[in-house]
Every structure is written in structure tokens, then in C-alpha cells.
Amino acid sequence: MAGMDSQVIVVGGGASGMMAAGRAAERGASVLLLEKMPRLGSKLRITGKGRCNLTNDADLDAFIGHFGPNGRFLYGAFSRFFVADLREFFDRMGVPTVAERGGRIFPASGEAHDAADALARYCQKGGVRVRTRTAVSRLLAEGERMAGVEAAGETFRAPAVILATGGASYPRTGSTGDGYRLAASVGHTIVPVRAALIPLVTAEAWVPQMMGVSLRNVRATLYLDGSAVASEFGEMLFTHFGLSGPIVLTLSKRAGEALEQGRVEIGVDLKPALSDEQLDARLRRDLDQHGKRAFRSVVKGLVPAKMVDVLVALSEVPADKAAHQISAAERKRLFGLLRDLRMTVRAQRPLREAIVTAGGVALDEVNPRTLESRLVWGLYICGELLDVDADTGGYNLQAAFSTGWVAGDAAAASVRTDG
Ligand SMILES: Cc1cc2nc3c(=O)[nH]c(=O)nc-3n(C[C@H](O)[C@H](O)[C@H](O)COP(=O)(O)OP(=O)(O)OC[C@H]3O[C@@H](n4cnc5c(N)ncnc54)[C@H](O)[C@@H]3O)c2cc1C
Known about the structure:
Layout: E1 8-11, H1 15-26, E2 31-34, E3 55-56, H2 60-65, H3 75-80, H4 83-92, E4 97-99, E5 104-107, H5 112-126, E6 129-131, E7 136-142, E8 145-151, E9 154-157, E10 160-163, H6 178-185, E11 190-195, E12 200-202, E13 214-224, E14 227-238, E15 242-244, H7 246-259, E16 264-269, H8 276-289, H9 295-300, H10 305-315, H11 328-339, E17 341-348, E18 357-361, E19 379-381, H12 395-417
Parallel strand pairs: 1-2, 1-10, 2-6, 10-19
Antiparallel strand pairs: 3-5, 4-5, 7-8, 8-9, 11-18, 12-15, 12-17, 13-14, 13-16, 14-15, 16-17
Flavin-adenine dinucleotide (FAD) binds near residues 34, 35, 136, 355 and 384.
């Protein structure tokens, strides 16, 4: 199909681009989808630990809230295509969905591949021509109008081009940030790109000793120069370099900003359900009831096994000291560690390891109701390439699907009215 003209060209066959291409074709446009990787939806296939957390059943305002201030931009797209529409879409494509803890919605099959394959089928059904292994290197504009793209030395012409190249993380899935350069080449402002959901590297040598420990129902608080600036309750994980897991990822963007401003720490409250009085009472009781036991074995009753030696060492209480000999000061030190296990944050992991890229095409240059560029006629921009990013929980994919659907819909409408 090289060189053949189309009405709509979609650049990038990820979550957003496949939805855009499928929708534009469904509305009657002749569509060409160009994807640089050998297959469609490489990133989608590894989302949600291979299970693909498609979206979330939070209501609209709460949903938007997970994107921070820029989330307001999404009201336009979400009012046209939102959670119920997405679930209905996957149902129709033979991939029923289920809601789990925290309102997270997954394919009932538990297979991200099913979601990606359904989107590929959607494109196929509408007659979208797909070219994989085709990296777009240039946008072609004629005056202030889109005219097509260049890829691998070939020119593909179309009056409407949808840019859906994703962010700049997990480059092995194809998301290498090409779209930022392409959008900038036709005049778009790119808000500096940085990691949004990214694990954090800590300084203390004892952190990696707890590698693999996953904590539920804890509270992590982010400190900048000693003052609390953000806090999250939920699950987290110790790794060989530091901290990861949902609440750490959620705090990570703020941590990145804080790292440019001063000294950054994370404190973990291991017993957030207990007040100070209750926690102290619990420790007194444990120490009293098991007076003859070694301190270490009392600590064992309080935290996961792999944390015991670390906490004992940090408490500076001899591991084999009998519980009834523990002084008030020693008990207070243990109390302090359980209430606020403090770690120094040294850095974010590199951008390529981010779940989502923050920054991107400036939102005031894109029409939120159509996703059309306000600078170039016929150029549409959707998905993670835009300057929107959210917490974990399915929000990012819904944004990619919704903006893709709306861009495809609007691009198809525009080529039809243009004749
Ligand atoms: C490990 C991991 C797990 C995740 N899990 C979840 C989850 O469970 N739920 C959730 O909501 N979000 C999750 N996300 C985030 C989510 O995957 C992304 O936000 C989403 O995929 C963005 O969709 P997109 O279509 O904009 O970009 P992408 O899905 O990245 O697709 C962009 C496509 O464009 C192609 N491309 C790039 N440049 C060019 C070019 N020059 N020419 C042609 N093609 C090009 C790429 O190869 C790629 O296929 C996860 C991310 C990661 C990395």
C-alpha cells in the first residue's frame, strides 16, 4: 500500500492509536495505521502485570481527580466515551470485563493480549490498512494544513493525521518519544517530559535487605526538608534499589519535583490503623506477655519476616535481650521505627522505567472536544503524548482510549465534510 492515499493516517498502533484508527474506519474513513514495531499494542500487552487494568469504575469527578490539575482537559473526551462505553466496546469485541478491588477493571480472562487483540480486530473489521515495522519520521504540512507523513523514505498522503505515539518510557515497546519531536516540528509546545509513575532509589544500605517484601495497608509520607508534602495509604514494595509499588509510584512524581528542591525522604507508617496510644499499648502488651522471649521474637510478631533483622538492628536493641528487660527508651525506639520507618530518597529510577510519562504536548494547543491541534488543521493528538498522566488504577489507559476514540471520530468527520 506504499504511497497510497488515505483519508486518515494514524501514527502509532498502541492503545490510543488502535482505538482512533478503528473508530475512524467505523465512521467510514479510509484509514492507514503506521506502527514502528513488528506488532500492534506492544505496551498494552504488558500492562497491569500482563492482565491489563483497562479502566476504573470511579465516578467522573473522582476519575478526573486522579490526573491532577491537567485532568480537566479530559472532560471533553470523557463526556463522549467513558468507562461504560469502553466496557461495552470490549464486551462487543468478545472481551467481557470485571471490576476488582479499588474499582480496577480488567478483561475477565485476565489476559492483556485479549484486549490488544480485540483492538486489532476492531481495526481489521473496519478495513484499516495496517503497516507494522514502519516508523514515521516526519509530518508533512502544507501551509497550516496536514498533508501526510514520511516513513522509511516513503510518503503517505492524507488530509488528517492522528499522532498517537505514546510517551517516552519502556522504549522496547516502541514508545521512544518520537511524537514529541514530530509535534514540535509543526510548532507545538512540549511541556518538559519526565517520569510520573516511577520507582524510587533510596540511600540506606538496609533497604535492599528487605527486597521482595510487599506491605499492604501502610501509609507512606513524602518529606521535603523534613516537612510532609504528600501521603498515600495502600500497598508498597521493597526492591534491590529502593521502593516501588502503587503508593510509591503515586508519590513518585511529587518526589521528582521535591528532589530538585531539597532533601527528600519517605517515612512508612507500618501500623497506620493504630493511634499512638494503641500502638504503644500493643508494644507494652507484647513485651509483657512474652517477657522471657528474645526481643527479636517480639519484633517477629509485628512485621514481615524479612524486615525483622533490619528493624532490630535499627532499634539498636540486642536481638537476644529478654522482652522484660527492654527499657522504655528502647521500646520508644521500636515504636518510632514502626510509626515512621524513614528512608532517604536519592533519585527516581530512569525515565525509561516509568509506567507513565508526564509532560508532553501542551494542552492549550489542542481542542479538548476533538483532540485537533489548534495550530495545524487536520492534525489530531491523543494518548500519553498529551500532557496528561494519572495515578495507577486504569486511569491512564482510559485516557488513551477515550482521547483516541474522540480523535478518530473527529478526524473521520472532518474528512467527510471536507469532501
Ligand atoms: C509496565 C507498564 C504497565 C502499565 N500498566 C497499566 C495499567 O494496568 N493500566 C493503565 O491504565 N495504564 C498502564 N500503563 C500505562 C499505559 O500503558 C499507557 O499510558 C498507554 O499505553 C498509553 O497509550 P498510547 O496509545 O498513548 O501509547 P502506547 O501504548 O505507548 O503506544 C504508542 C505506539 O506508538 C508507536 N510509535 C512510537 N513512535 C512511532 C513512530 N515514529 N512511528 C510509528 N509508530 C510509533 C509505538 O511503537 C507504540 O506502539 C502501564 C505502562 C507500563 C509501562
